[in-house]
Amino acid sequence: MQKLLITGASGFLGWNLCQVSRSQWETHGLYHQHAIEIPDVRLHQVDLTDRELLAATIDRLAPDAIVHTAAASNPNFCQQQPQLSRQINLTASQTLAEICAAAQIPLVFTSTDLVFDGTQAPYLEADPVAPINIYGEQKVAAERAILATCDRAVICRMPLMFGNVPPTATSFIQPWIAALTEGQKLQLFVDEFRTPVSGTTAAKGLLLALVAPPGILHLGGSERISRYEFGLLMAEVFGLDRSLLSPISQKDLAMAAPRAADVSLDNTKAIELGYVLPSLREELVSILAAQTRSIS
């Protein structure tokens, strides 16, 4: 087996990628603060902002490819902590690109749909970026630094993601499920549109990116949908009370980071490479089935 190194293995996307990759690759994962165990995956504690340690670890492991999923991905956190989040989202990413370039290691970098301003969706890979929050700005800077540094890099712009989670991370649906299960009302945006995808499907897309030509690749989901519409679908599939969901607008909720209205991604390029996109209903049914199996 070839050797794959995944950063952010204790995070939502990194953990899901480990689940998918371990049957095809000798999988190694890096984590920083949150120790985790994943069957058939070798875990290593590394601070990505420690350049010497990161370089030494990569030199020792000698991976055939690296997927960089580690990030400070909460837009509000980035807006409130720009210097700290920049170290993680930009500086560490640029360091990793330099190491990969020197060692000629293919690099897949996970960016975001929030590099766009939300006014011209659906977005193609070649469309101009125009982020409206600090998180998006940091990801744009990282994209440009990586492409300028590493000629074997693929930038994967990821959408809103959901799915099964490790003990060390969550996705946006876990708080929703908890609230509805406890009979709490939930307010969701009707005017923020994304193309969400499950962590499993996203992970399969990232493995596909490892054999894609260098450049940019969009790995959005199959459907453009608002958070409120997604909540209604999720409640139906999970057998939760849809009447607890209330529609609101972005302007009704104060947030540290501005949010774009519609950053839906056009996935045509990825689909042509073999990216398979189940419907959101199919994704949710699969997640529910997995949760039921784990309980039983």
How does this model look, in words?
With 296 residues, the protein is α/β, with parallel strands linked by helices. It has a domain at 3-166 and 196-221 and 266-277: NAD(P)-binding Rossmann-like Domain (Rossmann fold, 3-Layer(aba) Sandwich), CATH 3.40.50. It is 40% helix and 18% strand. The strands form 4 sheets. A 7-stranded parallel beta sheet has the order 3-2-1-4-5-6-11, with helices on both faces. Helix 8 packs across helix 10. The longest helix is centred in the first third of the chain and has 22 residues, at 82-103. It is globular and about 55 Å long. 45% of the residues are buried. The model has no long low-confidence stretch (mean pLDDT 97).
Outline the fold blueprint:
Layout: E1 3-7, H1 12-21, E2 26-31, E3 41-45, H2 51-61, E4 65-68, H3 75-80, H4 82-103, E5 107-112, H5 134-149, E6 153-158, E7 161-162, H6 173-181, E8 186-189, E9 193-194, E10 197-198, H7 199-209, E11 215-218, E12 225-226, H8 227-238, E13 245-248, H9 268-272, H10 280-295
Parallel strand pairs: 1-2, 1-4, 2-3, 4-5, 5-6, 6-11, 7-10, 8-13
Antiparallel strand pairs: 9-12
Helix pairs in contact: 1-7, 2-4, 4-5, 6-8, 8-10
CATH superfamily of one domain: NAD(P)-binding Rossmann-like Domain
CATH architecture of one domain: 3-Layer(aba) Sandwich
Tell me the radius of gyration: 18 Å
What is the helix/strand order? EHEEHEHHEHEEHEEEHEEHEHH
- Tally of separate helices: 10
